[in-house]
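Re-run with default settings, no changes from the original entry. Doing this only to confirm the output is reproducible before filing.
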Amino acid sequence: MSLTCRVRIVLNDITAEKAAAVKESLEPDNINFPKGLSLHTEGIDGGLAFIFESTQDMKKMIGSIDEVLGHVQIALKVMK
């Protein structure tokens, strides 16, 4: 039996320009994700969505989510 966990996190009320800048700033970090873990970002109306999916270790997924959100927070602070 295979277990897949999918987490969707949405940043609301940010401009399309900020959403694009955040998405672009995360691209270099998306290269060496742990095996079985993926991140997809998509612009949505009035925000940005992060979709994490894991078929392996959920602890790695939680750690990766924490790290990505930390990078997002820094990017948004720099844009202020």
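The longest helix spans residues 58-79. The chain has two helices and three strands.
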